[in-house]
Amino acid sequence: MSPERTTAGGLSQGYAEYTSKDAAEVMKTLLRHRGRANRAPVEVIADECGVGPRTVRAVLADLDGVKFVIATDGDSGGIWMAASTDDAEHGTRRLRSQAARMLERARRRDEYAAANLPTIQGKLI
To answer: How far apart (Å, rounded) are the C-alpha atoms in residues 113 and 102?
Structure first.
């Protein structure tokens, strides 16, 4: 019998797969990085919990806002488990800003493709 696998993350997470044990290790390790004073790069957290950085990012992407909130200042390259709403707010603003830029990029791509690329197969539905 093969171990439980969960596919997670998007392109930035590299479609990493992880087990529930991997997720538990990441969460346990993250508890040591609660509050800004305990921030660390993803690579350090990965070393501490014995999984790869892609796995850490995939777990964080799946569980951020469900089991905890990840905070980052964007400057230090470090992340930490938010210990206050102040910690969480900055990261949430960054996430919304990234989402808006991604949606704008998707709109531009759709517009460009419709105007400049041939349609080979129409929509199926």
So the answer is: 16
